[in-house]
Specification:
binds flavin-adenine dinucleotide; 4 helices; 34% strand; 235 residues; alpha+beta; D-Amino Acid Oxidase, Chain A, domain 2; elongated; 2 domains; 14 strands
Length: 235
């Protein structure tokens, strides 16, 4: 299938990019317009921008009730009221179920990523590969930080398991042997929200409350689209 994205078939010997990777890799597709972001930087930037525009953030362990008539939100830090609410609780459909949304079915797919730090700086790029039939990606940033991702399993338990970390490192070193001297920084896990139809959705819960979820593997990429939808909805 052609999505109109420019791509080139590269073969070892004709392209120096292969020098970084294992000699077992002899050819690959190169996407010149491919790009990536640092999710931590994006989140920090968004929070700072919104704070500058007067948005108040309330950190809370849990929103315990969302009353759809008056959009009254109960949290561990008190009650808040608003003219409109967007319910964005990711893989947790409990609040939507509490409001009797019949199709409140999102399921969590846990993913683990590993972060490394290289001593050499300056090299950037991203490789996606299938190793032993398993998908893996390695993202390198100019400050020497490296992200290896991502495992995938049906689980509601947000913990980092030893097997996922060891598999990610094993596969990463197979395609990228020079990472063996990189410092292990951390491993993270998250729950990707998957909807029944496999697609993101916006569901009206009431005239002043919308529930959105189902972004699965693409929630960061699709965040601007989600924002535009909410903006349109608010008129
Ligand atoms: C390992 C991994 C790698 C990924 N890589 C990419 C990628 O490369 N590109 C990309 O676009 N996407 C990626 N994703 C997917 C992306 O992270 C998700 O699609 C996105 O986070 C979904 O956004 P969300 O706001 O719907 O849910 P979340 O980000 O899960 O946010 C929901 C928030 O609601 C909170 N919450 C839930 N219930 C309550 C409650 N009752 N009270 C208060 N708070 C509550 C949760 O704690 C959470 O903080 C990745 C995900 C994982 C796990």
């Amino acid at each position: 299938m052609d999505f109109g994205i420019e791509r080139q078939l590269l073969v070892r010997g004709a392209a120096e990019i292969f020098d970084r990777y294992s000699p077992r890799i002899s050819e690959g597709l190169y996407f010149p317009s491919d790009s990536f972001v640092d999710v931590d930087e994006v989140r920090q930037g968004l929070v700072a921008t919104l704070r500058n525009r007067g948005v108040t953030f309330v950190a809370t362990d849990a929103v315990t009730l969302l009353d759809d008539k008056v959009v009254r939100v109960e949290t561990h830090q008190g009650c808040f009221e608003a003219p409109f609410a967007v319910l964005a609780t990711g893989a947790n459909g409990a609040l939507a179920r509490q409001l009797n949304v019949e199709s409140a079915a999102v399921r969590p797919v846990r993913g683990v990523t590993v972060r490394l730090q290289r001593r050499q700086h300056g090299q950037t790029g991203m490789i996606r590969a299938l190793v032993d039939g398993r998908p893996i990606y390695v993202v390198e940033r100019s400050d020497g930080s490296v992200v290896v991702g991502a495992s995938s399993d049906e689980s509601n338990d947000r913990y980092v398991d030893a097997l996922a970390v060891s598999e990610l490192l094993r596969l990463a070193l197979l395609i990228y042997p020079s990472l063996d001297g990189a410092e292990f920084v951390e491993a993270r896990s998250g729950l990707r929200p998957v909807a029944q139809a496999g697609l993101p959705f916006f569901q009206e819960i009431s005239p002043n409350c919308v529930w959105t979820s189902g972004y699965y593997r693409h929630g960061v990429l699709m965040a601007p689209l989600a924002y535009r939808h909410v903006e349109r909805r608010l008129g």
